[in-house]
Amino acid sequence: MTSESMTAPRLRRRSTDIYDSGDRSQAERAWEDLLEGGGRWRLWSKLGWHDIRKRYRRSVLGPFWLTLSMAVMVASLGLIYGTLFRLDLENYLPFLAIGLATWTFIASFLNEGCTSFIDLEPLIKNVRIPMSLHILRVLWRNLIIYVHNIVIFAGVAVIFGIWPGVGGILLAVAGLGLLLVNAGWIMLLCGIICTRFRDVPPIVASVIQLLFFVTPVMWKPELLGDRRYLMALNPLYHLIEAIRAPLLGQLPGWENWAVGLLLAVAGWAFTFAVFARFRKRIAYWL
Amino acid sequence: MASIHLNDVSVDFVLYQGSARSLKKTLLRSSTSGVLKHDAHHRVTVKALSNFSLTLEHGDRVGLIGGNGAGKTTLLRVLAGVYEPTAGRIRVEGRVTPLFDIGLGLDMDASGYDNIRMRAAYFGIDADEVERKMDDIAAFTELGDYLNLPVRTYSAGMTLRLAFAAATSVDPEILLMDEWLAVSDTKFLEKAQRRAEGFVNRSSIMVVASHVEDVLKRLCNKLLWLERGTIQRFGPVDEVLVAYHAQSAGRLS
């Protein structure tokens, strides 16, 4: 059957035009799904933008509505908690602005990662598209919102004359990369589990709420005093710190990066095994 | 040349009813019974297709017939690559255009033009190709400047025209359809019919599930009669129809 297609040069065959369920193992197929999903960045970035535009189409400010509400939140929380913790605003506000924006990003990609396959059911059931593409679409739209929220930190930094330096910014961008790599496997894993078990998304939502209080977003880790070691156990702290510290003009601890990298490797290894095993069942579960 | 080969394909659905959908109940059950395999007894599986072998070549225009639940939609989804078979092997060569839902991905808040682009993007069609065809698509819809407005502002008939034009704008190599494209607007009907048939004629292989015999007779050169997930009969249209009718007549008497 392959010789036939070779003698027909009329049509330019793309690799995606041949679909064979039995020509490779499930692991190779899962790997291919990830590569193809990543390779079709034009589509997922377009769809991600499309989601954003759809959400804010009839508003004047567009996604800057989020920026505005975040700004109000940072300003009011900054005043109250800055006073409660007896921190000067110059010190506390930049910390809060970057922390809160990053936290909002994490919480939303976790929540939306859970429902990404469920929400895109009509698409998944109608067209063969790599599963990873749906995840990337959701991650991308949340990243866009995150960038809008970072604007507040930039504003605060200008007000207080904070300049992290080019090195600091590059280090923070690298930290963001680390967060995104981890976001990828977390969302994929949550997406698979939540499609199979429909009571998981609410569980995840309440876990996120708990995590917010135990992660130093509103409060500074120094406040833990002798019990600062507790922070080492919270992987989200390390991921946030890898972005926040360099922007505040500090070097992130080596342990922040070590934990983040370890998490990425272990998480992807586990998720890949799950993905290879259950990828083809996702459409059946919907 | 496009081709489709199904070799001993089976599709099993596990029905996760109520409690099996719940993580809590699944965990509790396994901890109380102590044996995870016990789970298997609680699950109901449905064999939607069993040991299905089929080869389709260039020029095949296949109509799927059979009662409800015979496996027509499942077979179409297997051909589209949405359901990967639980057993057996499927090999499809050629660009597949699944047209199960002509309103797929229709976004009410986006403009008509954007909707056409979006739809093409879902099917992996290059942006350039869409732009080249845009005039043709726009002319066919007869929507004129409305294409710049959000679909939300369209009447039902206009929305249908848009969806229909966008759906049939691609050059399908392997075309899969669940029910023939139905258009109720009588003025639009004839034009739509012509376009749809041209669309079918451009394809190399077509598979359509339909209950309407006129449609099957007009479009297909083969019929595939499905019964409980297996092939009851596969052959020329008239022959299969006669057998199909004979059986349903037998059932009645």
Can you summarize this structure?
Chain A is an all-alpha fold and 286 residues long. Helix content of chain A is 74%, strand content 1%. Chain A has helices at 2-6, 26-39, 41-56, 64-84, 89-119, 121-126, 131-160, 165-196, 200-214, 235-247, 254-278, 282-285, and one strand spanning 18-20.
Describe the SSE topology.
The complex is a heterodimer of chains A (286) and B (253).
Chain A: H1 2-6, E1 18-20, H2 26-39, H3 41-56, H4 64-84, H5 89-119, H6 121-126, H7 131-160, H8 165-196, H9 200-214, H10 235-247, H11 254-278, H12 282-285
Helix pairs in contact in A: 2-7, 2-11, 3-7, 4-5, 4-7, 5-7, 5-8, 5-9, 5-10, 7-8, 8-10, 8-11, 10-11
Chain B: E1 3-15, H1 23-33, H2 39-42, E2 44-56, E3 61-65, H3 72-79, E4 87-93, E5 96-99, H4 112-122, H5 127-141, H6 156-167, E6 174-178, H7 186-202, E7 205-209, H8 213-219, E8 222-227, E9 230-236, H9 237-252
Parallel strand pairs in B: 3-7, 3-8, 5-6, 6-7
Antiparallel strand pairs in B: 1-2, 1-4, 8-9
Helix pairs in contact in B: 4-5, 4-6, 5-6
